[in-house]
Design a protein that fits this description.
By secondary structure, the chain is mostly helical. It has seven helices and no strands.
Length: 96
């Protein structure tokens, strides 16, 4: 399965869920330099299987310095569990 076929399948599975789509993109962005060319991204972004949102966000994801790319890259960062616990406690009303 080529990268483009994989991403078309991912796009079909994540229709209607931006966070799901961004998770697929985040897996690809971290290895972007070795696997994907601009031509691959352009070919995929012209594929009719992708929604308008998926096409636009795909282009932005592979554009250096774009806010979309920065957000997607941040999805690959490890989460500080103490921060998650603090937010959870705050939402439950257990603020320390």
């Amino acid at each position: 399965m080529t990268w483009i076929n994989y991403m078309v399948t991912a796009a079909q599975h994540s229709k209607g869920s931006a966070s799901h789509w961004f998770r697929y993109l985040s897996k690809d962005i971290e290895k972007c330099g070795a696997v994907f060319s601009k031509q691959d991204v352009e070919e995929l972004s012209n594929n009719d299987a992708l929604t308008f949102f998926q096409r636009i966000s795909l282009r932005a994801a592979f554009e250096e310095g774009s806010p979309t790319r920065q957000h997607i890259i941040s999805l690959n960062n490890k989460v500080d569990l103490s921060m998650v616990t603090a937010v959870r406690n705050k939402l439950r009303g257990n603020v320390e």
